[in-house]
Amino acid sequence: MIPAPASILVYVGLDAVGDGLMKLPFLRALRAAFPAARVTWMAGKGHSVYAGVLAPLVAGLVDEVLDDCHVGSQVRELLGTRPLYGRRFDLIIDTQRRLLTSLILRRIGHGAFISASAGFALSSRRPGTSYRRPAAMAAQLLDLVELAAGGPVQHGAPLLIDEPIQAEAARLLPDGQVYVGFAPGAGGRHKCWPLDRFCAVAAELAQAGRVPVFLLGPNEAEWVPVIRAAVPSAVMALQETTQAVTPMLTIALAARMAAALANDSGTGHMLAAADIPLLSLFGPTPAAKFAPATRFGQVIEAQSFGGEAMELIPTRVVVDSLVGMLSL
Questions:
Q1: Would you say residue 59 has pLDDT above 90?
Q2: What is the pLDDT of residues 120-164, one digit of tens each?
Q3: Whether the Cβ atoms of residue 254 and residue 277 lie closer than 8 Å to each other
Q4: What are phi and psi for residue 288, nearest 5 degrees?
Q5: Which domain holds residue 136?
Q6: Contact 182, 201 (CB under 8 A)
Q7: How open is the CA angle 79-83-88, to the nearest 5 degrees?
Q8: Which among 11, 135, 199, 293 is most buried, taking Cβ atoms within 10 Å?
Q9: What CATH number should be reported for the domain holding residue 187?
Q10: 279, 313 in Cβ contact below 8 A?
Q11: Does 158 map to a domain?
């Protein structure tokens, strides 16, 4: 095992919002493995949302963000002044696999270097010869943490959610009910299971005494009257809040749910971050690569029913799967 590091540098190219959400399980596992370390997150080729909109989400997980550092792109960086001007870290984790970038990063002072680049040839620790890289990007990153830790990391560190946000989530979803989340949107409508089927599932669960909670983004506001007509008891949590709609509020709301249903979307990754049972629906995008990393996850793919179109996923299959997850 690598000695417990006091300082860790994590290198990424850049982080858009989707990237930042997908990397949360990695960060939580890293903090769980090394709770006392000072973690520096370096975006070498662009901006990181951890320095902006998602900064509150990684409080307690990341101690410092070095944003848009212009490190890791040019051959000339292999010569002359070392990157980061002489700073040293006990552990560097390189999350990308471009060989030139990895060679540049190795010039930063370090005690141990973990990288999958060139088949782990540059890494201080390497997996066994039977290792096969998983398809899921989240799983690939978790493998790097386990390699650094010398073994499995059982649980991710908790997210720190401000008390006012928790209080707002409790106001919107007060104790005493069984809430089930529904996230019918996605970055592209081709990734969305039909809205009327989300409503049908929600209506059936409402008849069984559960309270459907719909999480709608600003691009889905026109769905509100449709959902209210089909599922009168549904809670439109993000439309009813008096606070700013943030990922932290979505996660706080999700933590009060017994289970949730989502498409392949950023909201799906927020629901996964709440560590609740999550049923994810996939069609045109590969679930093996993009499914949220969660201990209580299940995936239904349109390919199991003959193609990539989301409409191929049967409503009955979704209802039965979601009901089964409510007992987890």
A1: yes
A2: 999 999 999 999 999 988 899 999 999 999 998 877 888 999 999
A3: no
A4: -60, -30
A5: 7-149
A6: yes
A7: 125
A8: 11
A9: 3.40.50.2000
A10: no
A11: no
Residues 129 and 206 in one domain: no
DSSP 84-147: GGG-EEEEEEE----HHHHHHHTTSEEEEEEE-HHHHTT-SS---TT----SSHHHHHHHHHHH
219 pLDDT higher than 90: no
Q: Is the pLDDT of residue 218 over 80?
A: yes
Rounded to whole angstroms, the maximal C-alpha distance in the chain is 69
SS3 state at 184: coil
* Per-residue confidence (pLDDT) for residue 327, from 0 to 100: 79
Answer yes or no: is 300 within a domain: yes
- Domain assignment of residue 143, yes or no: yes
Show the tokens assigned to 122. Answer: 């540059």
Q: How far apart are CA 35 and CA 13, in angstroms?
A: 25
pLDDT tens profile 19-42: 999 999 999 999 999 999 999 999
**Given the structure tokens 């979704």, which residue do they identify?**
318
What is d(CA 213, CA 172) in angstroms, rounded to the nearest whole number? 10
Looking at the structure, tell me whether residues 226 and 315 fall in a common domain.
yes
Residue 2 is assigned to a structural domain of this protein: no
Share of the chain above pLDDT 70, in %: 99
Domain boundary (149, 179, 212) is at 149
206 token code pair? 């409402």
